[in-house]
């Protein structure tokens, strides 16, 4: 069976890229699958993660991201030209390859890929949630544009043979679509990891941008008693456009002795093992892989009640704590609770590790295998 995945690029250390890597690795190890990854903005850069050599990687060289930061009118005109070129290049590739299944991860081809008559089953995976455009809370014409594009999304997703979301909560927001299915991401753990509580370290992982809300985390850290910040440490791992802003915030808050922004690492599981719990202050997610990975390593999760993920994954007061979205005082209180009660922290750590049973790579990918086989049979 031939599978083709479409994604913008894989040179960044993002959660989507890590999920994609794990899926493609499973397919090639499973045997009987030919796998291709088609990108638009790789720009000749090497993948951040080590994709298996069996995965054929093709970049179409469209380079949408080259227009970021340009005049809106110029950017729009350039986008329309590039989209036309993208459709032509992808059509030629799919007609040549004759794949059984083509899966879009919701980059630019999602608007036209159902029109390509290559005979393949067309699937759309959403790794955000339905409201992701609106959660930036932009104002004026930009807000109007976000609302229009959200309405357009509702039309786009209906055109695919299958539309897959990651959580039950997100599925409820989309409503009763005939092609809608829920398929969570899997968790992959490093088998050598030995985690024990008592590190006096809090960890956060993700892109340094608005979505992840690390500015909210730093403000919360500053609310903790200075005596605790003298013995505990906060380490944030990531890169992105907010890096300098967050570093300046650390200086402004006077928390530089206990909080730091760190570069992304390929050994993130070692960092989980050296921490006590993970904090997530995102404004929104699709299905937070960082949450699953950290829990599988034995880290309880403290997070805001953002859309989507926490309610599907966290059992309150058992393997983590969810507090009202944006309530910094409540989050600081939850952090303080675990810092001051090591027995509770250890119990929650033991429960967190059990997440691997429900979200193991093998069980989730076998669900994918059965799902795809069934959909091809129905086609």
- What count of structural domains? 2
Structural class: alpha/beta
Q: In the CATH hierarchy, what is the superfamily of the largest domain? A: Glycogen Phosphorylase B
Largest sheet: 7 strands, parallel
Q: What's the end-to-end separation, in Å?
A: 15 Å
Residues in helices, as a percent range: 40-55%
Count of helix runs: 14
> How much strand content do the residues show?
15-25%
Instruction: Give me the side-by-side strand order of the main sheet.
Output: 3-2-1-4-5-6-7
Q: Which architecture of the largest domain does the CATH hierarchy give at level 2?
A: 3-Layer(aba) Sandwich
Helices and strands, in order, run as EHEEHEEHEHEEHHEHEHEHEHEHHHH
In one word, what is the shape? globular
Low confidence ranges: none
Descriptive account of the structure:
The protein is built from 14 helices and 13 strands. It has 379 residues and is α/β, with parallel strands linked by helices. The chain has 2 domains: 2-185 and 360-378, Rossmann fold (3-Layer(aba) Sandwich), CATH 3.40.50.2000; 201-358, 3-Layer(aba) Sandwich (Rossmann fold). The strands form 2 sheets. A 7-stranded parallel sheet has the order 3-2-1-4-5-6-7. Strand 6, helix 4 (168-174) and strand 7 form a beta-alpha-beta unit. Helix 5 runs parallel beside helix 7 (243-253) and helix 5 packs across helix 11 (328-340).
């Amino acid at each position: 069976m031939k599978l083709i995945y479409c994604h913008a690029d894989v040179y960044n250390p993002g959660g989507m890229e890590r999920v994609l890597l794990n899926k493609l690795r499973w397919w090639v190890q499973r045997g009987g699958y030919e796998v291709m990854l088609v990108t638009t903005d790789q720009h000749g850069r090497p993948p951040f993660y080590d994709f298996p050599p069996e995965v054929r990687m093709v970049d179409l060289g469209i380079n949408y991201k080259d227009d970021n930061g340009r005049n809106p009118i110029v950017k729009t005109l350039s986008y329309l030209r590039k989209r036309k070129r993208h459709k032509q290049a992808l059509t030629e590739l799919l007609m040549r390859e004759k794949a059984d299944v083509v899966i879009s991860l919701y980059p630019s081809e999602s608007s036209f890929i159902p029109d390509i008559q290559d005979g393949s089953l067309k699937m759309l995976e959403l790794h955000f949630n339905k409201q992701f455009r609106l959660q930036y809370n932009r104002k004026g014409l930009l807000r109007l544009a976000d609302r229009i594009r959200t309405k357009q999304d509702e039309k786009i997703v209906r055109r695919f043979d299958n539309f897959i979301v990651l959580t039950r909560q997100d599925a409820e927001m989309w409503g009763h679509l005939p092609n809608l299915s829920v398929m969570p991401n899997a968790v992959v753990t490093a088998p050598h990891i030995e985690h024990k509580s008592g590190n006096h370290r809090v960890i956060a992982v993700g892109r340094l941008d608005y979505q992840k809300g690390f500015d909210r985390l730093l403000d919360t850290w500053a609310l903790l008693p200075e005596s605790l910040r003298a013995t505990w440490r906060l380490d944030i791992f990531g890169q992105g456009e907010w890096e300098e802003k967050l570093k300046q915030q650390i200086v402004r808050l006077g928390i530089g002795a206990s909080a730091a922004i760190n570069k992304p690492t390929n050994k993130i599981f070692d960092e989980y093992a050296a921490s006590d719990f993970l904090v997530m202050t995102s404004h929104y997610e699709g299905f937070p892989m960082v949450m699953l990975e950290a829990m599988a390593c034995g880290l309880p999760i403290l997070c805001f009640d953002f859309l989507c993920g926490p309610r599907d994954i966290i059992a309150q007061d058992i393997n983590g704590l969810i507090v009202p979205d944006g309530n910094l005082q409540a989050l600081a209180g939850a952090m303080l609770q675990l810092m001051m009660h090591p027995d509770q922290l250890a119990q929650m750590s033991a429960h967190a590790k059990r997440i691997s049973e429900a979200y193991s790579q093998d069980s989730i990918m076998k669900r994918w295998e059965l799902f795809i086989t069934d959909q091809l049979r129905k086609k």
